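Notes on consecutive records. When two proteins share a document, each keeps its own sequence and its own token line. Never mix them. Below: protein one.
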Amino acid sequence: MSSCEQDNNTNKGIKSRNKRDLEQQIEAQKTPEEDLREKLDDNQKKGLDFLKEALSSDSELNKFLNEDESKIKEALDHIQSELAKCTGDDAAGKKNTFKEVVKGALGDGLDKFTEQADSTCGQGNQ
């Protein structure tokens, strides 16, 4: 009888190990975007969503995602702070214009992104 109990415990150990291995495989299969999203706050996630809309291809997004994480977060914070200025008349139009600005500024990488990617939302009539 004791050998049956021992087999039972061994099976439980194997099942537990298999489950843990499966969880690690799933973890390893995350895309760079999914991995980054886990590290972002809500505003940065909104900035990333806006950025995805602005970029016309997955390769442009992947290039962005391969940048240094601190630069990515800084860029996403900047995007959100600029978007917060887009209120009032023609806010949607100004946001669309800002998408083009963001896309152009990313062409030069993230080093000068915050200097080059300013919206026109805070200027003139709101």
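Protein two starts on the next line and is unrelated to protein one.
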Amino acid sequence: MSGRIDRFKKRKEILKKNQSLPFVRGVTDQDQVGKLLSKGVDSNRLKSLNYSTDVNVSLEANSAEVESLLSELKASFHKDRLEHLLDETKRGVISSIAGPFGLGKIISAYDKTGGNVDTVHNAREGVYATIEEKQRYDERGDYNSSDYHGHKDYKNKNKEDSQLQDKGALSDSYTGNVIDENSNRHLDHTISANEVHNDAGRILAEVDGPSAANSESNLNSTSEHINNKSGKGALTSNEFLNKLERTAPERKARIEELTGKQQLTSKESRELERLREHDAVDADRMRQIDENARNEYDANINKEYYTSKKFVKSTLSTGANEGVKMGVQQAFGHLLVEFFSSAMFEIKDAYTNGLEGDSLYKDIKARLIRIGRNVADKWKGAIEGFSDGFISGFISNLITTLVNMFVTTAKRFVRMIREGVFSLLKALKLILFPPANMSFVETMHEAMKLIAAGGVVIAGVALEEIIEKLILGAPLLAPFAPIATAVIIGSLTAIAMSLVAYLVDKMDIFGVIEAQETKFILESLDKDIDEKLNRCERISEEVDEFLSENSFLLPQSS
């Protein structure tokens, strides 16, 4: 700005200095004047110079023109965003085909129902991650009653309860009634010893069966009629209670029938005693005892297994393997995307501009070299992709293991977890380590897109099975089912991801797009103003040349 002011002052000084001098010019050549006047006006030249004789410039703002200009700038902004979205969609199609539904599908072939780590829940469902644990369960051996009923804890508890029974101070655990000192009493394993022996979770945790079965909460004294084969026996508490409920009408009728008799045989007397004992069972009491015993038993099994070196080692090793697989998927996928993108560009260029060089061989060679260089230049992105993939693979393995502690996951669900965790980690990485030129609200806006894109990929994985079955249903397409599925699902997923990104932009929860639009308009106006100021500068410099002391336009001293 100061340069313009200085030049203006200089022009004023030159004019002031020379305004009193007389004009001295050479004799005018009339022939030249005649030629000049006889020439016509070059209208095209004037138009190219944007020359106007109208010096009446209005400085008042025209609202209609302002609105029109703003509308044009807004349209230009959204046009640029749409073109960018379409370019991202093209790249996204390649990325999806090469990534989650290409390499990801190949890697998922090694996924297992229930994940890569054995869990207590899965073992009880008959689902094993390792052959060794399945084999160890199969070789557990037959149940031996003496191992459980001869255990020291069982004997000690039985002795204590016998002493209480002799004193008339022992109550039936399942009825609450005092057990007569002359009654036949049984010390019941609430969780049957047979169930404990065959429990796959216990075997996985390598917990001693007799010790686990003879815990204090699992040993409960009751009547022989409740614990014998016609009663609870080897049934679970719920199974026994369901049996009592189912036979209640018949039992009550039989009790009424036997009590109505004046004299009973010894067999009928024992039957009546058994039926009354069964009728006296307190269902809520038995369920509570069973729940307490199972909670303590399961807590012991879980503690022993999930704090064992075996579990920790298995989790870490499988996590590292998953990390490497996911890292390779992301790194190789990154390079594949660049390869296909560069190849498509070269094909388009060859079609548009023709061959390079003297022969087809030289043209292909030159283009392949360029493609190779482009791919090689992306090695940093490949390394970053591997590191991101490794972390997400390791974490997804942990999450899969945690989920399988409570519910058995299908193979496809394992893959969903893997892809979902990768998207979440990308969003988290963006939030924690945003680019230097990105504000917090812009970071949150882009993170929303990443999370939404992860949801789309998960939905794509779920849809993949359906599409593949449909393609396999067509005999002619069956041999190409894997490739066709990857292309179809990859394309649909990429398009859906672009649409979701567009919807997130349209919602503009954080006002990011509006701010970007305003910034674009201001920058466009600034650019236009700068261009016009630069043009004025050039004109000013030309005027300075004309107004120099040696200019023929200024008066000359005689």
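For the record: Residues 63-108 form the longest helix (46 residues).
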